[in-house]
Amino acid sequence: MAKGSTRLVRYVVFAVFTLTSAFSFQALALFYFVSNSKYNGVTVHPGDFKGRWDNSQSQDRAPTDQEQEAPLRSGSDSTAGDTSGDSSEYYPKDREEWGVTSKARIAEMGKQFPLAMNPNDPGWDNLMSTAPGPRMNATFVTLARNSDVYDIAKSIRQVEDRFNRRYNYDWVFLNDKPFDDTFKKVTSSLASGKTHYGLIPKEHWSYPEWIDRDRAKKVREDMKARKIIYGDSVSYRHMCRYESGFFFRHPLMLNYEYYWRVEPSIELFCDVHYDPFRVLVEEDKKYSFVLSLYEYGETIKTLWDSTKKFMKNHPEHIAPDNSLEFLSDDDGETYNNCHFWSNFEIGSLDWLRSKSYIDFFESLDKDGGFFYERWGDAPVHSIAAGLLLKKDEIKFFNDIAYYHVPFTHCPTGEQTRLDLRCHCNPKDNFDWKTYSCTSRYFDLNGLKKPEGHDSEHK
Ligand SMILES: Nc1nc2c(ncn2[C@@H]2O[C@H](COP(=O)(O)OP(=O)(O)O)[C@@H](O)[C@H]2O)c(=O)[nH]1
Ligand SMILES: *[C@@H]1O[C@H](CO)[C@@H](O)[C@H](O)[C@H]1NC(C)=O
Ligand SMILES: [Mg+2]
Questions:
Q1: Which of 113, 184, 224, 272 might form a disulfide with 232, Cβ 3.0–4.6 angstroms?
Q2: Does ligand 2 come within 6 angstroms of the Cβ of 147?
Q3: Residue 429 in 3-state DSSP?
């Protein structure tokens, strides 16, 4: 158990009622102890404070200032469930030591644990220990514009607080324009690992020569008139094509084997206690997701036709034990629009750089749907994962709680949420709602849905 695990949260609530009568005031003090003992069952006995807070006294008078500030924390409890010995370093054995009653006492005790007020003070970085164990060859990756700086700052802060401050994985930022100083300063101040800033080569963010730009323009005008989201955007199309076919080949990304994609303004609602990269390595997974849903059909009208063409031309790339069932309800005839939501992904770069994936991407790219329609990288990655990977190479992370507007993945299972100190509302969990495809993933893989799947979101 980690050092902090025996931390005891104890609230002492004093309710002082003043009762007025004709001739006298009477003060009544109520003590209310709430103990949060989920870690290691540290028990709190209301009688613990009896010696100091004798009933007869407390009914007669309100507690003095000294008493009020007294036993908020208890030293001896910290050793009750934790035999690691770590805690003794930080918590005096004698419970009375915690009765911080005077400045002199604080100064005396404080010498042992000086406050770190400035970055160069000892202990500044010691918020909680670094996770032991190996690190994978992995990085976070974010595609962003300079104007996204404060939205990505929010994401980084959450990723760091919930996970990376203990792991310190690198972070690669990619942009079709050079990153400005503000972007670099803000993001590098938040990331605990090394940060790298890459410019996207022009040829990865422009029309391939075989694209008829007039035709593409007409499509955008038409989609604009039909109010299709991002339908009139050129940059969005370059972005989707880049995420589909190029980010993993950026020179900076060649230094890594695994990636975790992070977008601006996402949220992580729960602690991530283990290294998901290592889970992928140990379980031999190539792709993972937390949210799945149906794609907007208007944006991918011929994507499945292109996919079928690829399957016919490259039967050697289709995995025998694939997830076609996730993608199609009629054995591959049509696409059911199910996809993993790719704004969150943890996956293998080597897989994306493999011949099978590149052949798939290039085949789609030649058909032009990134510009003649508005193919998203989510269905492209998902179809690839569904067909090129074995079904047990795709992982669902129930533990990683996630939000990207407008959908939430809040872990199913109350105990899980408590253990991970989640701050999401289980009712917001999208997994088992009608527009999610996650049930299909469970059925297809013969997985048992977590307890609470049928009740918590209602
Ligand atoms: N450098 C750059 N990044 C972009 C551009 N458009 C979108 N992005 C990034 O691509 C990702 C997806 O874009 P976003 O606006 O979040 O699209 P949505 O999640 O589909 O609504 C985000 O990480 C954006 O920061 C662009 O024109 N240039
Ligand atoms: C990480 O992976 C990349 C890509 O495969 C490789 O070039 C690099 O040497 C690896 N780094 C380490 C430290 O193993
Ligand atoms: Mg986004």
A1: 224
A2: no
A3: strand
Cα 432 → chain centroid: 19
Opening angle at CA 181, ends 175 and 183, nearest 5? 50
Containing 29, the helix (H) or strand (E) segment is strand 25-36
pLDDT at residue 245 is higher than 90: yes
**Residue pair 285/394 in contact by the 8 Å Cβ criterion:** yes
pLDDT of residue 21: 30
Please say whether the beta carbons of 3 and 86 come within 8 A. yes
| Euclidean distance between CA atoms 454 and 448, whole angstroms | 12
- CA distances, 371 to each of 112, 213, 300 (Å): 64, 8, 11
Domain covering 103-455, topology: Spore Coat Polysaccharide Biosynthesis Protein SpsA; Chain A (3.90.550)
Rounded to two decimals, the pTM is 0.79
Q: Give dist(CA 182, CA 189) in Å, integer.
A: 11
Handedness of CA 429, 433, 437, 438 (dihedral sign): positive
Q: Which residues surround ligand 3, an ion (CB under 5 A)?
A: 263, 343
Cβ–ligand 1 distance for 444 under 6 Å, the answer: no
Count of C-beta atoms within a 10 Å radius of residue 342? 23
Catalytic residue, chosen from 67, 257, 325, 345, is 345
State pLDDT tens for residues 27-57. Answer: 222 222 223 323 333 333 333 333 333 333 3
Cβ–Cβ under 8 Å, residues 262 and 141: yes
Summarize the confidence of residues 315-321 as an average pLDDT. Answer: 98
Cβ contact 157:190 at 8 Å: yes
Q: Is the pLDDT of residue 260 over 90?
A: yes
C-alpha 30 to ligand 1 mean position (Å): 55
Beta bridge partners of 14: 31
Chain-centre distance for alpha carbon 36: 25
CA-proximal residue: ligand 2, atom 6 (nearest): 255
Quick one: tokens of 40?
């290691």
Which ligand lies nearest to the CA atom of residue 239 in the structure? Answer: 1
